[in-house]
Design goal:
The protein has 17 helices and 19 strands. By secondary structure, the protein is an alpha+beta fold. Helix 8 packs parallel to helix 9, helix 10 packs antiparallel against helix 12 and helix 16 runs antiparallel to helix 17.
């Protein structure tokens, strides 16, 4: 066991792997960071000074940023299954860590962390002197309470599916007022990244009783002024925020942030940003392709592109007929003409998918052949499954995602030669989210995750009782897949981890419950007077240090 303050012994192994060309410099920075090495220290180890963001100059205080985005019903943040409300409430509540656009995870409400040699004991050191917006002091009790909420089966958080395999409530220890220790059941390398999963907002243990809007006490730079579901969320600047701006005064710079629910029809939002009625659009839960096409050459706006691990998943309920038969699942996957779907549904702005939920941009990705469009083979599989005359199926999609609707339309046409007769059931996004885990066949938008294990643990495993995890929308559970995934979670050796992922990807491609035609690029689009706004692959907003030109 290493002494407190010493480098984890695996950091030396990472450096050797880097020197041998088996690890990129970005991967070294990522893994060293997960092992508790600061970004600056890790950069110095490889002669790569960590690029500090240039100090903002000419900042201006005051003003109101106006954002077009749905205003959902909100109760327990740990139950979030969409990003939009977190973009509103992450201005009020915050996270223990922060994963940046380069896939490097940093301390946030945490000051630092250390991990034991065996990756099973994590020591989390908290920042001191931070206050919630009601005056309460942030401390270890809040962290313990928040993690216990994640692990509470009655809460039903997706965090349970992500961390429940390696942590249970008895493993969360308050070591002191500003230190928490996690005693894991099995090794896990990605703990800091899991703490930035969007339902992982830190709660005030003294006041939270299940409904954040009733007691909106967070450590963030804004407080809630107005929250009306389906209409408007107005946030106002708080006094006493713990971070200072470039001018030496406490953040935030702006007086208010207003989120305006304009529905899901993109033309109205495009017209509003062109007219200066709004300053930016929240694309996290609505497709941005239409806005990108309309605004990419508009001199009044800035378009900030970024590549992502975000995708649209064709998902089949493996516990319901006909999708319980893998031959039927495989047949539908073979009806995806991926190049065509990406070109027509998303203007070619992405990467072709391969029917597993691991992106070529994920650090563990194992290169695989992309399946070909093959309706002849698909028809044979349907015949073998007992459907010689083809099959009628309903496909549920949310109308607010243009690329998903187009994906469905292309699939419908290209599946006809195979014998699939697809009836597309289009509904508002809000209605889709009400039933997304229940429909037998649908297309679900899945947000960016920095690592492959993160999303696989969310969506394709069961709990200790054998029940599918809360976000396992397809109910597919595979014993070999689950065993390999547990092994991958604790594998620090890069080559070993990728080898395991070759098997995971092959299993999901051969007998899994999803089709995946493409991974997407995304854009943050804002008017030019919005300054210091940055694109994040998860489309997260952080308005603490954003300001507005006059």
């Amino acid at each position: 066991m290493k002494k407190s303050g010493q480098l984890h012994p695996a950091v030396k192994d990472l450096k050797i792997a880097l020197d041998k060309g088996k690890l990129s410099r970005r991967e070294f920075l990522r893994y060293a960071g997960l092992l508790g090495v600061s970004a600056a220290a890790a950069g110095a180890m490889i002669g790569m000074p960590w690029p500090r963001r240039a100090a903002a100059t000419g900042v201006r205080r005051g003003g109101v940023i106006r954002v077009a985005g749905p205003v959902h019903k909100v109760t327990h943040p740990a139950q979030f299954s969409w990003i939009t409300p977190t973009n509103q409430l992450r201005q009020v509540a915050e996270y223990l860590t922060y994963t940046d656009a380069e896939n490097i995870t940093h301390p946030y409400l945490l000051k630092s962390w250390e991990v034991s040699d065996d990756l099973k004991t994590w020591t989390l050191d908290l920042r001191e002197g931070i206050k919630f917006n009601n005056g309460d002091t942030f401390n270890a009790d809040d962290v313990v309470f928040t993690i216990q909420q994640w692990l509470d089966k009655d809460v039903g958080s997706s965090m349970l599916g992500m961390i429940g395999g390696y942590l249970d409530p008895t493993g969360v220890e308050k070591a002191s007022d500003y230190q928490v220790k996690l005693h894991l059941k099995v090794p896990e390398i990605a703990v800091p990244e899991h703490m930035f999963h969007y339902p992982a907002m830190v709660l005030n243990h003294r006041t939270f009783e299940g409904d954040f809007i009733k007691a909106p006490h967070g450590t963030g730079p804004y407080v809630i002024d107005t929250y009306r579901e389906g209409e408007r969320c107005v946030l106002k600047r708080r006094d006493g925020y713990w971070k200072d701006g470039a001018d030496g005064k406490p953040l935030p710079y702006m007086d208010r942030a207003e989120f305006i629910d304009m529905g899901t029809e993109m033309p109205a939002m495009i017209s509003a940003i062109q007219a200066g009625e709004i300053d930016t659009i929240d694309f996290s839960d609505i497709g941005g392709t239409e806005a990108f096409q309309a605004l990419k050459d508009d001199a009044r706006v800035q378009v900030l592109p970024i590549t992502t691990n975000q995708t649209r998943i064709l998902r089949m309920r493996a516990d319901l007929e006909p999708w319980s038969d893998n031959r039927v699942r495989q047949a539908l996957k073979l009806c995806q003409h991926r190049e065509k779907i990406l070109a027509l549904a998303y203007f070619g702005q992405g990467i072709e998918g391969q029917d597993f939920h691991v992106s070529p941009k994920h650090p563990e990705y194992c290169a695989m052949e992309t399946p070909e469009y093959d309706p002849v083979r698909a028809r044979e599989l349907l015949k073998d499954a007992g459907y010689p005359d083809g099959l009628d199926v309903n496909l549920a999609v949310g109308s607010g995602w243009n690329e998903i609707v187009r994906y469905a339309e292309i699939l419908k046409q290209d599946a006809i030669p195979a014998g699939f007769r697809i009836n597309i059931q289009t509904m508002p996004n809000s209605q889709y989210w009400e039933k997304w885990t229940e429909v037998d066949l649908g297309i679900t938008t899945w947000a960016h995750r920095p690592i492959g294990t993160m999303v696989l643990n969310l969506a394709y495993v069961a709990d200790e009782e054998g029940k599918p995890a809360p976000w396992n929308e397809t109910r597919w559970v595979d014993e070999e897949f689950s065993r390999l995934l547990t092994e991958a979670n604790g594998a620090l050796d890069i080559e070993k981890r990728r080898k395991i992922f070759c098997d995971l990807e092959k299993i999901q491609q051969d007998r899994g419950s999803i089709g995946n035609a493409f991974w997407i690029n995304v854009w943050t689009i804002a008017r030019k007077q919005v300054r210091n706004i940055h694109a994040h692959p998860s489309l997260y907003f952080n308005f603490a240090d954003v300001w507005l030109d006059a």
